[in-house]
Amino acid sequence: MDTLPSLETLEIVCCGDLKEVFPLDPKRQQKREIIRFPKLRHIHLYQLSALQGVCRSRMFAPNLETVKVRGCWGLSRLPAVSGSTSKRPKVDCEKDWWDNLKWDGPEAKHDPSLYEPRHSRYYKKAHLPRSTVLR
């Protein structure tokens, strides 16, 4: 599997035991090939607590438009994209998750500058309130 030519939308919701969406056979896992998703436009992943990755190989999705991720704290990578700064995919996600993603850099078309992150307007970093303890 080095390409999924027809996949346009990947949406998975509440599969708590799912670790990998497209597992590869052991021979391919060692090669670290790039898997191409030429028509993939939307990725929506919700409440997948065990998810570690879509696949173990690097992903390339040149036509990616939107990514929505919530509750997938083990997922650490997004697909590489076309590299066009005028057509950056919008990523709706938790800010803490976004801040912990791993990147390969602009030359690999896998850099945070190639995406447009959007975090909840209700996001607030947890601060400990100043207070006194009453006994």
UniProtKB/TrEMBL annotation:
Ranges for domain Disease resistance protein At4g27190-like leucine-rich repeats: 3-78
Gene3D superfamilies, A to Z: Ribonuclease Inhibitor
PANTHER family noted in UniProt: NB-ARC DOMAIN-CONTAINING PROTEIN (PTHR33463:SF37), NB-ARC DOMAIN-CONTAINING PROTEIN-RELATED (PTHR33463)
Protein name per UniProt: Disease resistance protein At4g27190-like leucine-rich repeats domain-containing protein
Species the sequence originates in: Triticum urartu
